[in-house]
Amino acid sequence: MEKIPMVDLHSQYLRMKDEIDEAIAGVIESSAFIKGATVTAFEEHLARYLGVRHVITCGNGTDALQLSLMALDLKPGDEVITTPFTFVSTLEVVALLRLKPVLADVDPRTFNIDPEEIRRKITNRTRVIVPVHLFGQCADLEPILQIADEHHLAVIEDACQSLGTDYTFHNGTKAKAGTIGTIGCTSFFPTKNLGCYGDGGALFTNDDALAKTLRSLANHGMEQRYHYDRIGINSRLDTLQAAILDVKLKHLDEHLQARQTAAARYDEALKNCEGLQIPYRAPYSTHTFHQYTLLIDSRKREALRETLQQQGIPSMIYYPVPLHLQKAYQPLNAQKGDFPNAEKISEQVLSLPMHTELTPEIQDRITNAIKNRNK
User: Fold this and answer.
1) Mean pLDDT of 125-130
2) Please, are residues 121 and 106 in contact by the beta-carbon 8 Å criterion?
3) Beta bridge partners of residue 185, listed in sequence order
4) Could you tell me what percentage of the chain is helix, strand and coil, using 3-state DSSP and rounding each to the nearest 5?
5) Residue 16 burial by CB count (10 A; 0-12/13-18/19+): exposed, middle or buried?
6) Which of 221, 264, 308, 345 is positioned for an S-S bond with 228, CB 3.0–4.6 A?
């Protein structure tokens, strides 16, 4: 039986092969492998797509998160509020910079940080809120921005899984994920909504001064060559990756639509499946389905995974252990039961194959295996 891939990047490449090959060849011909003109062009094109003043590319999504915190002139011990249910990078960079991570539980429907839980965690040392737009759906930003405004806090959007997602405010206006807070961050890891063929990341801001600082920080602290105004790091998107991303950006809306179409097919097939809960759609956000994630009774999850595996169907658990229960973060002094929603979700989530190349036939095979699991 043919095995189904969790993500099919090769088939996606074949549909853009001529464009991508030409773009790569152009970079090789120019031999401008670092900070080539293509990097600047891609930044401009992505800024236009997102409707944001500045895009600053960097080495990866983790660097983007670290640079965003470095740019805010924080001091050791300053508190940063974020979620326990996310990939480790969000918390990792806070700890690396000797800031104090403060966790707030998540909404059990969206899996994103709960604004009311944020409000409960604010102290006189709080400086930043980092909401994560998990799996392709925005956290509820409007109340988060209100809380931040009341307490004079910065908001760093972790949009690494949600590039292209739209957030709708109560007045009907819309903005792209990552462009709404003080700084937004994204990853171009190959499996992301907009992915390169290696590592890459970017930051977004509408603040001219912050953009200048971020560019300097990502380039060893330089503004003028060999003049160092601040302590920075070496984090850059190479020209080959920028060329690939610039091609794929032209197809991004098409790719997001393919993800949403695939998600709708999953929804229709699984909506009445006993013991499963399909993804919740928040009224304030579109969903671009970086992951298609079900909730299933924790006592039945492993049995379902085994059934799928036997039929050549992969699945993933994002994330099996919330961050406050991880060994590396024991210094947070959090205990099991402190974040009940995040803990319960981690025991129930199961992500199915999700990518731009899913066909109805492949999805039928997946959903039939799920529906027939107890027969």
Assistant:
1) 98
2) no
3) 158, 203
4) 40, 15, 40
5) middle
6) 221
How many Cβ atoms are within 10 Å of 258's Cβ, its own excluded?
A: 17
Q: How far apart are CA 114 and CA 275, in angstroms?
A: 25
DSSP letter at 113?
A: B
Indicate the pLDDT class of residue 373, thresholds 50, 70 and 90: confident
CA dist 362 and 358 (Å) reads: 6
- Residue 182 has a pLDDT of 98
Two structure tokens written together for 367: 């959903």
Classify each residue of 211-234 as buried b or exposed e, where b means 16 or more C-beta atoms within 10 Å of its C-beta. bbbbbbbbbebbeeeeeeeeebbe
Report cis status (omega within 30 of 0) of the bond before 319.
yes
State what percent of residues in the chain have pLDDT above 70. 99
What's the angle, vertex CA 218, arms to CA 211 and CA 230, rounded to 5?
A: 85
Tell me how far apart the 2 most distant CA atoms of the chain are, in Å.
70
Rounded to 5°, angle at Cα 69 from 141 and 160: 55
Local confidence band at 375 (pLDDT 50, 70, 90 cut-offs): low
Tell me: pLDDT of 374 over 80. Answer: no
d(CA 37, CA 137): 33
CA distance 303 to 66: 39
How far is residue 271's CA from residue 135's CA, in Å, rounded to a whole number? 19
Kindly state the tokens that stand for 176: 């792209």
The pLDDT assigned to 36 comes to 87
Dihedral angle over CA of 303, 297, 135, 284, nearest 10: 150
- pLDDT at residue 1 is higher than 80: no
pTM of the full predicted structure?
0.97
Instruction: Tell me what the pLDDT averaged over the chain comes to.
Output: 97
Element of type H or E holding 210: helix 208-217
Q: Which residues is 224 bridged to in the sheet? A: 227
Residue 240 has which token pair?
A: 């080959």
Other beta carbons within 10 angstroms of residue 109's beta carbon come to 14
Structure tokens at 117: 């839980």
* Structure-token pair, residue 359: 């066909």
Report DSSP letters for 228-271, one per residue.
Answer: ESS---B----HHHHHHHHHHHHTHHHHHHHHHHHHHHHHHHHT
Q: In the prediction, which pLDDT does 49 show?
A: 98
Find the helix or strand (DSSP H, E) in which 69 lies. helix 61-70
